[in-house]
Specification:
single chain, mainly alpha, 434 Repressor (Amino-terminal Domain), 2 domains, about 65% helix
Length: about 120
């Protein structure tokens, strides 16, 4: 049986996506009709989200609710990436739509391109 994703992991994904889109905690809080401190508690995993709020956040951040439950850690990404250009953000959004096979193909292509097709 799979473990349910912890509130902290979901909060980290919310924070990452919010920053990726350049949305402040205050703006998200206003949309949720809560204080920015409450958004901080959601992002830190201190307070849990109900399904209705999580669905609203997913829609507001333009992701499917499953985004918050995907495997993989954002901790390294959050410390390494502080800014994404709009083009980079678009590439990432499109990449998420690809099948695993297509992602592998694209990764190989990018590796070759980075090496100058040597």
């Amino acid at each position: 049986m799979k473990n349910i994703k912890s509130g902290k992991a979901i909060g980290l994904r919310i924070k990452h996506r919010r920053k990726e889109l350049g949305i402040s905690q205050e703006k998200l809080a206003e949309a949720l009709n809560v204080s920015y401190q409450q958004v901080q508690r959601y992002e830190n995993g201190t307070n849990m989200l109900n399904t209705e709020k999580l669905q609203f956040i997913a829609e507001f951040l333009d992701v499917h609710v499953s985004y918050f439950f995907e495997e993989g850690s954002l901790i390294a990404a959050e410390t390494e990436v502080t800014y994404l250009s709009s083009e980079e953000a678009k590439v990432l959004r499109l990449l998420k739509r690809l099948s695993k096979r297509d992602k592998e193909f694209l990764l190989r292509f990018l590796q070759l391109a980075a090496k100058g097709f040597k």
